[in-house]
């Protein structure tokens, strides 16, 4: 099946269905990486959030009832992979605030808890955007847990294929101030034209000195069946999410090329470099199909 069977303009979801379930999947990995005395991450909200969503497979996964001995998908390997990703975006925000930026935007926030767990400087505003049911569920669940944001948190419940700049502005976003943006685990769930439009909108809303971080997929070196390969990997740990159905897997601009053409100075940390920065090594299976120019991208508007 291809995504044309399951994805369509205006489709929507909660955290247990369609693209929403992928937010729960990555939060489950953060929960696992945050467990035990040798925890690699400290996301104490990930586990209660995943439990509250209630997808049985992910609850079983964090409780250690399911899992695999597969060399690339065991608990340690999954934890390392999620740690590399989480720390990249954490460090990006830390560097941005150290440089004086006090406005952050998390595009497609899902179950991201950075607005609650990062040590934001006083006076920082963090905007979170995602689909309405995702935003409402996370806000309510964290409030029930007694969690307090560590910044001024403002939510924007909207589809990122719609006029989100207007909604963000209505929520108090100030385009005259430099902003740190992240789009973590988002771009591949947008149609290619919507990805370009999103990056156009981010550029239009960014004062000089603004920064953005996202993943970089080097489409030219991916095999044709990369989406199926990723689905097969997640199936090995028992996930029932068919990623290939949810991705828009056709030709698209790479984020780095697109942003560079819009005046952003881009810096790529390849997957191998990002793992090495944390003292880990990516598995050969991932390296083999990602190619050498995929990884994590940070860019500054000059
Ligand atoms: C893989 S999850 C990543 C969530 C979060 N950034 C993280 O890394 O934990 C993908 C997220 O993108 C959001 N998303 C995808 N397409 C979207 C759209 N068109 N509008 C709003 N949110 C979208 C989903 O709701 C989901 O929360």
UniProtKB/TrEMBL annotation:
Keywords: Methyltransferase, S-adenosyl-L-methionine, Transferase. Its EC number is 2.1.1.-. The keyword S-adenosyl-L-methionine applies. Transmembrane segments: none annotated. The keyword Electron transport does not apply. GO terms for biological process: methylation. It is an enzyme of class 2 (transferase). GO terms for molecular function: methyltransferase activity. Exhibits S-adenosyl-L-methionine-dependent methyltransferase activity. Belongs to the UPF0677 family. PANTHER family: S-ADENOSYL-L-METHIONINE-DEPENDENT METHYLTRANSFERASE YKTD-RELATED, S-ADENOSYL-L-METHIONINE-DEPENDENT METHYLTRANSFERASES SUPERFAMILY PROTEIN. This is S-adenosyl-L-methionine-dependent methyltransferase. It comes from Mycolicibacterium arenosum.
